[in-house]
Write a structure and sequence with these properties.
With 593 residues, the chain is mainly alpha-helical. 65% of the residues lie in helices and 5% in strands. The strands form three sheets. The protein has a four-stranded mixed beta sheet. A three-stranded antiparallel beta sheet has the order 6-8-7. Helix 14 runs antiparallel to helix 15 and helix 15 packs across helix 16. The protein is globular.
């Protein structure tokens, strides 16, 4: 015998209308609105919301206005959404209801998501952040997501890390599956930026679990975005083609320009330029000038620009350069910061190179490298040279070997870092090693190099350094507002100095400055807790961080006495902090046993 079918939300709404139960109608309509999916048409849902809007009073009426704004914004109709968002915000402010005001601010932000709305978006985001401490967990999550999105868009590294840690801590604090989904999906985005494919894969699997628990409407879209990013990073052409097919099918069926443009970029990365050009043609039917300047505008232009440069479509390239030039200093991110698509300067460098203006291409590439270093986007920084050498199918995840490299160069780029049975170490160039007495830092380096691309906590790396006891009693705060302000000022100074060093070709100074920037960002990333609450000095982790960093720097100094280039290479490959990692350079190998 068949079990009775559960009535749909729309059926339940009409049943409530037949009973003249306005309260139930409102609750059901709001629940349906909460299930709206980004970039999909809302069907009859706006009509239901309009109906209850005429029958309710604040605060219910205000929530319905927020829902209408959200539904129309998700459907790509910000002009239709804006009046409802403005009315809801005015009403919420009049009532003095912080939670409702946060909901209205969130709705308002959805209506000013285009490339020309950045100043307004930043202002509203700041107002929302001011309310965050007083909000329910889900409202706090939205506040952190918006602050993360705008800070990443303007490449504010400190605030980006702060909001990522806030999301992570909120997820841990509440255990809420939806918050865990949003936190892990954004941490996965960050992992792809810095080049950690394994971590991104682990976080993607977490997201699949959390999405099942909370029935997240956008779970499928987020999963495909992460899968595509992982395939790009790993240069997995088979997986790229599968994702390109999925994006093309969905984008075409639903008429979603941004998804079609993403499929074009994925087909290019998968090695199918003809199909990529066909999808770009579909996305740019009226040319770049005809694209609506909404939330999807910048990702659509960036993705089609890659295809244009690779397939020789000079008309598109010229249009893209003109459109992108006023937006320098920005990152290209998709809705809600699920995907990072490089910085505007990177795409301008591609355009200049495709147009034959190498001087302009080199200048834009120089600036793009500096911006990538600002936010630790190492995977993208390494891609620039490959793009300028050959604009064909771009894949993020490591530079190509330098032209002219051959097998005879192996002896120049292979080093010993091998423990000897008596406790000493064999170190140095492959053809001229020396023996060193035992140094704790050499052991740390050996562990990190044995696990390339893996982040290892300083505490785990040290294993509670023999002879050194750790006191877990909290002492002084690790970071406060003054310290964060100082970090921001220092990062700004470093960015300026890096630009000068790059422009003058001073690679040694650039390496030192980059190391300092990475140290600051690693410190901020590990030190910040929920909503910026500082962790404390005096903990095991803090003492381990100091001990490991000191030991590794001592090892660097000692290795420099043996071979200065070997030490310089390691300084560029190894990052220390609360979490340490080894990011290998192309063409450099290590003999570890």
């Amino acid at each position: 015998m068949d079990l009775p079918r559960e009535p749909s939300g729309y059926e339940r709404y009409h049943e409530a209308r037949a009973r003249a139960d306005v309260e139930a109608m409102t609750a059901i309509a709001l629940d349906l609105a909460a299930q709206a999916q980004f970039n999909l048409q809302p069907g009859s849902l706006p009509a239901l919301l309009h109906e209850v809007l005429t029958r309710t009073e604040p605060p219910s009426r205000t929530r319905v206005e927020c829902a209408l704004a959200r539904v129309w914004a998700y459907a790509g109709e910000p002009s239709r959404a804006r009046p409802f968002a403005l009315a809801a915000l005015e009403s919420a402010r009049d009532m003095g209801d912080r939670d409702l005001q946060a909901e209205a601010l969130d709705a308002r932000l959805l209506t000013c998501w285009g490339p020309d709305d950045l100043a307004e978006r930043k202002s509203i985001t700041h107002e929302l952040a001011e309310l965050a401490a007083y909000l329910s967990p889900l409202r706090r999550m939205n506040a952190h997501l918006w602050r993360l999105t705008t800070s990443l868009e303007v490449l504010d590294a400190v605030t980006t890390e702060r909001e990522l840690r806030a999301l992570e801590a909120l997820a841990h604090e509440t255990g809420d599956a939806r918050i865990r989904f949003y936190a892990d999906s954004r941490l996965a985005m960050r992992a792809l930026m810095v080049g950690h494919a394994d971590l991104a894969t682990e976080l993607r699997l977490n997201c699949q679990l959390w999405a099942t628990e909370c029935d997240e409407p956008d779970a499928v879209a987020v999963d495909h975005a992460l899968a595509a990013g992982i395939a790009r990073l790993r240069c997995d052409t088979t997986a790229l083609a599968l994702e390109a097919e999925a994006f093309e099918e969905f984008g075409t069926a639903q008429g979603i320009t941004s998804v079609i443009a993403e499929s074009a970029s994925l087909w290019l990365a998968a090695g199918h330029p003809g199909r990529a050009e066909a999808m770009a043609e579909r996305a740019l039917q009226g040319g770049i000038a005809g694209l609506p300047r909404d939330v999807d505008w910048l990702p659509v232009v960036a993705n089609t620009t890659q295809v244009a440069c690779a397939t020789g479509r000079r008309d598109w390239v010229e249009q893209a350069y003109t459109a992108l030039a006023p937006l320098t200093g920005r990152a290209v991110i998709d809705a809600g910061a699920v995907g990072f698509h490089g910085v505007v300067e990177h795409h301008l460098a591609r355009c200049s190179s495709a147009l034959g203006d190498q001087k302009s291409a080199e200048g834009q590439a120089l600036r793009a490298r500096s911006l990538y270093r600002r936010v630790g986007a190492h995977a993208w920084e390494e891609q620039i040279d490959a793009d300028l050498r050959d604009p064909r199918p771009p894949t993020v995840g490591g530079p190509s070997p330098s032209p002219g490299a051959d097998e005879d160069s192996t002896a120049q780029t292979t080093y010993w870092l091998t423990p000897i049975g008596d406790g000493s170490w064999k170190v140095g160039p492959i053809d001229a090693p020396v023996l060193l007495r035992h140094l704790v830092g050499l052991g740390y380096l050996h562990t990190l190099i044995s696990h390339p691309g893996v982040e290892i906590s300083a505490l785990g790396l040290s294993g509670a350094v023999p002879g050194e006891a750790y006191d877990a009693t909290p002492l002084d705060p690790l970071l406060d507002d003054r310290a964060l302000a100082e970090f921001r000022r220092r990062l700004a100074d470093i960015d300026t100095a890096l630009d000068h060093a790059d422009a003058s070709g001073d690679a040694a100074t650039a390496a030192v400055l980059t190391d300092e920037r990475d140290q600051i960002l690693a410190h901020v990333r590990s030190a910040l807790g929920l909503s910026g609450r500082a962790r404390s000095f005096g903990t095991d982790a803090e003492r381990a961080r100091v001990a490991v960093r000191r030991a590794i720097r001592t090892a660097f100094d000692r290795l420099a006495e043996v071979d200065s280039r070997m030490a310089e290479v390691l300084r560029g490959e190894v990052t220390t902090g609360y979490r340490c990692s080894y990011r290998p350079l192309v063409g450099v190998t290590w003999r570890l046993v």
